[in-house]
Amino acid sequence: LQLELVKQSDGKGFGATVINTRAIQYGTVTAVMRSGCTSGGVVSSFIIRNDAIGDEIDFEFVGADKATVQSNYYWQNHLDYTKMVKSPAMSDTTQNDHSYQIQWTPDQIVWSVDGNAFRTVKRSDTWDSASNTFKYPESESYISFSTWDGGSGAQGTSEWAGGAIQWGQGPFLTNVKSVTIDCYYKGNDTTYTPPGGSDDSSSSSKDDDKSSSKDGKSDSGDDNEDDKDSKSGSKDSSSDDDSSDSESKDGSDSDDSVDEATGSDESSDESSEDSSDTSGSASRAASLGAVAAALAAACVF
User: Fold this and answer.
1) Which residues of the chain have pLDDT under 70?
2) Of 4, 60, 225, 266, which is the active-site residue?
3) Which of 29, 80, 129, 130 registers the highest number of CB atoms within 10 A of its CB?
4) What does the pLDDT read at residue 18?
5) Can you give the pTM of this predicted structure?
6) Catalytic-residue membership of 273
């Protein structure tokens, strides 16, 4: 799978998002990928999110730092960017494939890179006495990959992403080589749409999956610009008790479909190839088909 960020006539970036067709509630998701953030301002992401409820677990890459990936989680759209934690330094994330894993269970979330866990959040540590609840993501969610222009966002978002995109440093290609999904609940013969979808009921058929293209949009993170205006910077500690300055959300749209918004022609249901091979549209299309198939076969409720 290859996602490309291209320049529009207004000078802003036109990004891409791919979302899986079925929901997951707990499980282990592993993606072998490289980011497209070869310039400041470019953002790539690997996210598990329920858009309707606002629960999210993520990895995000920014052009301001090619040696780490950022991790965070949100509960019901409470966007606390101070909980962001960076991974340890690794080889250039734009030039090398790395394995990024989110292990999500009812009790904890573990983020790992290349098989090495660098962060753990326990549900028991998210208790909020004021609201008498655990602020822990637990709703059925969708897996997505995206690339977008953070450099043209509000000041805080732009500074976090690394400033305005230097278009001469492109192309900006996020490559997903493989996706592995191991569901905590192994599923059954029904397909379930999480709350907020077009159909809140269960169905006895697995044939209702939909694959469609999204109207192109400029993924500049405008939905959350106001939240980030006064936040920028990063955090190097792996402790969840430390605070940091800023992190961005792209507001990726999740619905019951495999969605892609991109400035290039990339669609196919062919078998898998290494998506890091950018020599032609045929290999990119083949890889898209393989990763989309993995996403489509995620967790069935």
Assistant:
1) 187-301
2) 60
3) 29
4) 96
5) 0.67
6) no
